[in-house]
Design brief:
The protein is of the alpha/beta class. Helices cover 45% and strands 21% of the residues. The protein folds into 4 domains: 233 residues, P-loop containing nucleotide triphosphate hydrolases (Rossmann fold), CATH 3.40.50; 55 residues; 211 residues, Rossmann fold (3-Layer(aba) Sandwich); 64 residues.
Length: 619
């Protein structure tokens, strides 16, 4: 097998901080390899070294055999004066130049140039190639090819850079977080494209479905050691757990043996033979191994949110438009306790705009937003943390509070809180600007959660977070005793968290879908199959006799029925808890009034949901 990339004993330091030291691995032709590591481990720096944009402090990295290489950086470096067309077609190949000239002639409406370009396309038989390029640009929503790069957003620049790489079809693809700034449709298209592509791939991504479906090998960088797993993400999760258990078992054995050797050392006479000296040295080695502790250093988010009252957030006839772009058209919804809603839709469909309206950062054109008195928002914004130049990590936290209230009488100092979030004392005085993208995100998460919100709004929280932190954030959100709205392109994350979806369909329409993202994709696939076979569906309908004409539940209704069962169980539980509290002798009079009002609401909700459940279950 031909080796494309060889990394030998590679080291890189950032001042006194060791990013990685003495790591070695290789990537061979045809492999599709992903690297997994914690935030701050130097993944993006490693990619830059491999691509020759950064120099290592020790060891070497060699690109050995590929004829062409395509490198997608996390923040692409494009010429701001170039147009989108120039940036996307920035290459010297004959086919690409021919297609570029053809596209340019079309855009400029130049008949003479167009005739010449068509003739060249015919000579090179480049029409199939041009069609493939159009598909790439279309799938990545790149339409205005005459716009200059300097006027694009960060996400648009990344899509142009990705288009450039895919158009050039390099032998070896190096991709750093390729799914960031892509909407769900783009991600699924890119996933299928790379899955089928006959290329060699080395990438960093936190998208676990992407890892599962595209990669055939995982490299994990953990504690300055490289571990290889010959399989996809699911295989990696299973084998990594086996490895950690084996390491822990080895440490336990060393501890037991060390206790025996320690007892021998205490009883041993002072006059030592050669044999006893060897055994003493061996005991010290055992002590070193026994003192090891295998931990994933995962943060545990157990911060208790403020108490929720009976009224959460009610939205009525909400409308918003920017010129002819309609974001919302008379949208109404009453948020319920403990529900977790996912928001999906194409880029530019207005997801962030709606979040800003709900939190009062942006006024609607019409309609009302009624926020409950007890609601405390925690808003994790897509654009991340704002900090002043020269700020240190601890300054960001202390600016909000010197002491953090965790609920139930528990408190932490700013330094303890940071330590809890995997910022140990020796890193708390580091400059924020020197943190990795993922570390900045984790710090931003600290600033949101330390205010004890009971209504979380998370706009793309998964960008730049490592998989270990994502797993813990998912556990926290599942157990969060408040409401949550999540906008994310991470399908795995959405599947684990949300109860139902708000699907932004365009033109101000929002569909409330009862299920997670995978449920929604299955439903869409079913709809597409039905549309492709209308005659078959008509024959099946005509072939049913009268007895079989009772309508079966559709996919949407099945999901609604499942959600109703969960809601009814939760409401019954809340009803019993309120009854118990109201019958107790130590109930505060003011709280009794609030609970009585909530009790009436719960009974009414139960009646409505039970009637709907009966209606669906009898179909």
């Amino acid at each position: 097998m031909i080796t494309y990339l060889q990394v030998d004993n590679l080291s890189k330091y950032w001042g006194e901080l060791t990013l990685f030291e003495g790591i070695s691995f290789s990537v061979s032709e045809g492999q599709k390899v992903a690297m997994i590591a914690k935030n701050g481990a130097g993944k993006s720096t490693l990619m830059d070294i491999i691509a020759g944009l950064e120099t290592p402090d020790g060891g070497k990295s060699m690109l050995m055999n590929p004829n062409s290489i395509g490198y997608l950086r996390q923040n692409p470096d494009l010429n701001p004066e170039d147009t989108v067309l120039e940036a996307a077609f920035n290459a010297t190949g004959e086919l690409i130049q021919a297609v570029k000239n053809y596209e340019k002639a079309l855009e400029n409406h130049d008949p003479k140039l167009l005739d010449s370009a068509i003739e060249r396309m015919n000579v090179l038989n480049a029409w199939d190639f041009e069609l493939r390029i159009q598909q790439i640009l279309s799938q990545l929503k790149i339409t205005n090819v005459n716009q200059q790069i300097k006027f694009l957003s960060g996400g648009q620049k990344k899509r142009v850079a990705l288009a450039h790489i895919l158009i050039n079809e390099p032998d070896f693809l190096i991709l750093d977080e390729p799914t960031n700034h892509l909407d769900l449709e783009m991600i699924e298209w890119l996933e299928k494209y790379l899955e089928k592509a006959k290329c060699t791939l080395f990438m960093v991504t936190h998208d676990r479905y992407f890892l599962d479906r595209v990669c055939n090998e995982i490299i994990e960088l953990d504690d300055n050691a490289i571990f290889r797993y010959k399989g996809n993400y699911s295989y990696y999760v299973e084998k990594r757990e086996e490895r950690i258990q084996a390491v822990n078992a080895d440490i336990d054995r060393a501890r037991n043996l060390f206790r025996t050797e320690l007892e021998w050392l205490r009883k041993m006479p002072k006059a030592r033979t050669h044999k006893s000296k060897y055994r003493t040295e061996n005991a010290y080695k055992l002590q070193e191994k026994a003192s090891q502790f295998r931990s994933d250093d995962e943060l545990e988010l157990t911060i208790q949110g403020k108490r929720l009252g009976s009224k959460i957030l009610n939205v009525k006839n909400l409308s918003k438009a920017f010129d002819k772009l309609v974001i919302l058209d008379k949208f109404s919804y009453n948020f319920a306790r403990l529900e977790k809603i996912g928001i999906i839709g194409k880029n530019g469909s207005g997801k962030t705009t709606v979040l800003n309206m709900l939190t009062g950062a942006l006024a609607p054109d019409s309609g009302t937003i009624d926020v409950g008195e007890t609601i405390s928002f925690g808003y994790y914004r897509q654009d991340g943390i704002n900090f002043k130049s020269g700020d240190r990590v601890i300054d960001v936290i202390k600016e909000i509070a010197e002491v953090i209230d965790l609920g139930n009488g528990n408190k932490m100092s700013a330094s303890q809180f940071l330590n809890y979030f995997l910022f140990p004392p020796d890193t708390q005085y580091n400059f924020v600007e020197k943190l990795s993208g993922g570390e900045k995100r984790r710090l931003y998460l600290c600033t949101v959660l330390m205010k004890n919100p009971n209504f979380l709004i998370l706009d793309e929280p998964t960008n730049d977070l490592d998989i270990m932190t994502l797993n813990v954030l998912e556990d926290y959100l599942r157990n969060f005793q408040g409401c949550a709205i999540v906008v994310s392109h991470d399908r795995f994350f959405m599947d684990k968290i949300v109860d139902h979806l708000f699907v932004f369909e365009g033109n101000g329409e929002i569909k409330d879908f009862p299920g997670n993202y995978s449920d929604y994709r299955d439903w869409l696939d079913d709809q597409e199959k039905e549309q492709r076979n209308p005659e078959k569906r008509e024959k099946e309908t005509k072939g049913k006799n009268v007895k079989e004409s009772v309508r079966k539940l559709g996919f949407n209704e099945k999901r609604e029925l499942e959600k109703l069962e969960k809601d009814i169980a939760l409401l019954e539980k809340e009803k019993v808890a309120i009854e118990k509290m109201m019958n107790s002798d130590d109930c505060d009079p003011q709280e009794l009034v609030i609970k009585s009002q909530r009790y009436s609401e719960v009974r009414e909700l139960l009646n409505d949901k039970e009637l709907r459940w009966l209606e669906l279950s009898e179909m």
